[in-house]
Amino acid sequence: MLRIAIILACLIALVSFGIRATFGLFTEPLPAARGWDREVFALAIAIQNLFWGIGQPFAGALLNRFGAVTVLGVGGALYAAGVALSAFSTTPLELHLTAGVLVGIGTSGASYITVLGALGQIVPPERRAWALGMGTAAGSLGQFLIPPLGQAFIDAYGWHAALLYLAAITASMAAMAPALGVRGAASPPGMRDLPTSEVLRRAFGHTSYVLLVTGFFVCGFQLAFITTHMPPYLTEIGYSAALAAWAIGTIGLFNIVGSYIAGSAGGRYGNKYVLSLIYSGRAAAIALFLLLPPSPITLLAFSAVLGVLWLSAAPTTSGLVIVMFGPRYMPVLFGVTFFSHQIGSFLGVWLGGVLYMRTGSYDVVWWLCVALGIAAALIHLPIAERPLAALEPQKASGAA
Amino acid sequence: MSKLSHRTALSTLALIIAVWLIAMALLMNAAGGRAGPGTPLLVLFPPGKPRLEVIHAISRSEGMILRDTALDSAWFVSSVAPGFQARLRAQGAIAVFADLPYFPVILGCLPHNAFARAKRQLP
Lengths: 400, 123
Hints:
By secondary structure, chain A is mainly α. In chain A, 80% of the residues lie in helices and 1% in strands. In chain B, a hairpin with a 5-residue loop joins strand 2 (64-68) and strand 3.
């Protein structure tokens, strides 16, 4: 039963992360069909990311209150409704409300972050690190597999029908959610939860949690900058568009392996050491890529290393939250950590554009990524990887 | 970590990839049906069909061979006459694929610019 729950949780992560990655495919056909500028669509996606980031801690809190089945089910249904309704949006406002707000809120309910939170609660401690790695790897796999499927839907049936087919795939998350109704060790019956504000107050009272939240900000900064600005940077320094596409594909492929290995390694060697290795590895890889002469081998090797280190910070960061505070409040606390990640993402994309316009090159931000990587590698070392706070649910008055 | 855990991960991955490959094959086949006349197509005949018979089948479909592939049953073809895909299927083709931006990712065994190279053979 638990194994089926883990597999279906992974499928939810795969669909959730994968469908999000297909939105870029509609940047050209959807606005063109409606007679809009691409900015209208870009704003919808920006709104979507904003609502996902803001909604994630709330989704974590709701997970504790109503359970994974409800949060993932409702999140999946809202996500699917948003994708389907964006096909029928005929004004920019409608698109911002559907592809933006509705999908953003739905994503936070049915994101891979929520899936990791649910897995943290239902999987026993000895298999938890592995399950978190598997959940993240499934999300990475979705990012790799679903966009080609989305493109094939567009080519075979057109963008409008493609959105409806993708909405049907998205709706499958709501159908799979009941499998996560397994009661884990983190949800003992007859216990009363601490208020979310109290959980956050106690967590932020520990330097280790603050350091972890800060470290994940760096992860968001690096990943969002590279995702958005690497393709134009590569063509600018002389790589062909085809090779740039291969570089992105290589990152996606190695990301699956890296996420899985990191989850298992975090459980075996200590999450903070694996995290420190991930950030120092990213810094070293970026520095070498900038210093070595451009060549296809350098680019593909860089992409492979970056891919291994790409989402590997997610299972280790979530694993560390569980070690420090227990699985019960992990969805809320990892949700807050993820919010910090999204602020980093926003700054990575934004600063990348601003500094490029001011300096005429991406070099400053690339070296900023190196510096932040070194800083993140160092700040994870003093983290106390042990239970820090008594955040266990309290016995409800009158409970047996 | 027990072997069983890694085995679960690997079997889940294999199942997902298998479902995905089937879905992609069906969708690419459907996309092939929408391709306009003169577009390069990758046609797939039943494996084991003799090379000469495949060439004849393409010829009878009023098609032009652009390039061969490592497989005797798979060829890059084109035709300016409408209804080419239907004629290929009537001649025994099991699938007709049009170009897709993600083609190199989907079929890593093909050179990443296979369709572009086939297109260069068009008159």
